[in-house]
Amino acid sequence: MALFNIFKKKKEEAGPEEQVSRQQELNEGLKKTKEGIFGKLARAVAGRSQVDEAMLDDLEEVLITSDVGVDTTVKIIRNIEARVARDKYMNSGELKSILREEISALLQQSDSRRDSFGLDVKEGAPYVVMVVGVNGVGKTTTIGKLAAQLVRAGKKVYIGAADTFRAAAIDQLQVWADRAGATMIKQEMGADPASVAFDTLKSAVANGADVVLIDTAGRLHNKVGLMNELTKIRNVMAKVIPDAPHEVMLVLDGSTGQNAFEQARQFTDATQVTSLAVTKLDGTAKGGVIIGISDQFRIPVRYIGIGEGIDQLKIFDRQEFVNALFGE
Question: Which of left, alpha, beta for 222 (phi over 0: left; psi -120 to 50: alpha)?
């Protein structure tokens, strides 16, 4: 059974009260983003009776300054312009509904690829996730929270400390592994990261693990160096489990706005990123970055971080995200 579907089934089986609570938690986590985008939007449409060129110019500025991204903003504006031209008249009261539809459509394009990257845990070999991202984005914390949720779901989890360039990274990961109830494989600082990944997979296979999470160095140096390092890790893992890694998850800090776009470009150039985790959304008004990254890179957002607690790493749900932004 796909591991993603374990969480999905849990969500579907949740009662109405639990579903409301989950939506309320997400609403609170995205409060700053909602206030940032829709506070600006309310000011842009105040006192206007219809959607005209001036209003669309203001909407364009709102979206760009909310870190949706220029390319995605232009796409949204063009689609709204086409609807205005088709319908001949559109009042400002309809703009929120239309904007919601446009954002939903962009996120749905990413969601359509989602099932093909499900964490497909099967008997006989562990499912391997290689986690990448620069230092400071919450990569280690994301691994720890995900491990805790998987262990709670009854899965045997191994963590490989392949970020061997910082002793603090290894120590921090050990704390999270202990807290989560996962097994961590590590070597000394400065060891070959590929060697750590190899040892982790060998141990995981020998001990019947269900999931392996491989941490990697967060240095964003030159593209060639990054590519070579990640390629070496991938090749070594494939010697133990032929199709490993099954998923390459890029962790991005949502509060960095446009810097998150650049990091996504760097890592997608360096390796085949198959999913995203966007962290620290509770402390920023820049959550619009999810919309742009989903649209521009066509990579599904798998998880979002909306707080420091273990349970505040959430599986990304398009409908819940849009509901939180639009106050429903």
Answer: beta
9 is in an annotated binding site: no
Is 124 one of the annotated binding-site residues? no
The answer to whether 151 is annotated as binding is no
Instruction: Kindly report whether the global pTM for this prediction surpasses the value 0.90.
Output: no
217 is in an annotated binding site: yes
280 annotated as belonging to a binding site for a ligand? yes
Q: Is 114 annotated as a binding residue?
A: no
288 is in an annotated binding site: no
- Whose CA is closest to 260, among 294, 226, 283? 294
Cis previous bond, 245, omega within 30: yes
Q: Is residue 15 a known part of a binding site?
A: no
Long-range contacts of 87-90 (CB under 8 A, 24+ apart): 89/50, 90/50, 90/51
135 is in an annotated binding site: yes
Is residue 40 a known part of a binding site? no
Helix orientation angle between 70-87 and 92-111, rounded to the nearest 10 degrees: 130
Question: Greatest CA separation found in the chain?
Answer: 68
230 is in an annotated binding site: no
For 193-219, the pLDDT digits (tens) are: 999 999 999 999 999 999 999 999 887
Q: Angle at CA 14, nearest 5°, toward 318 and 182?
A: 85
Residue 1's Cβ-count burial label (10 Å; 0-12, 13-18, 19+) is: exposed
Sheet holding 183-185, edge to edge: 183-185, 157-161, 211-215, 127-132, 247-253, 275-279, 301-305, 313-315
Nearest to 190 by CA among 220, 214, 170: 170
Using DSSP's 3-state secondary structure scheme, residue 47 falls into coil
Task: Give per-residue pLDDT as tens, 99-152.
Answer: 888 888 888 655 544 333 346 667 778 999 999 999 889 999 999 999 998 999
- 72 has binding-site annotation: no
pLDDT means per 10 residues, the chain with 328 residues, are 49 55 81 80 75 86 89 92 80 79 76 45 84 92 93 93 88 94 94 96 96 87 75 94 93 89 88 91 85 89 88 86 79
Q: Is 279 a known ligand-binding residue?
A: yes
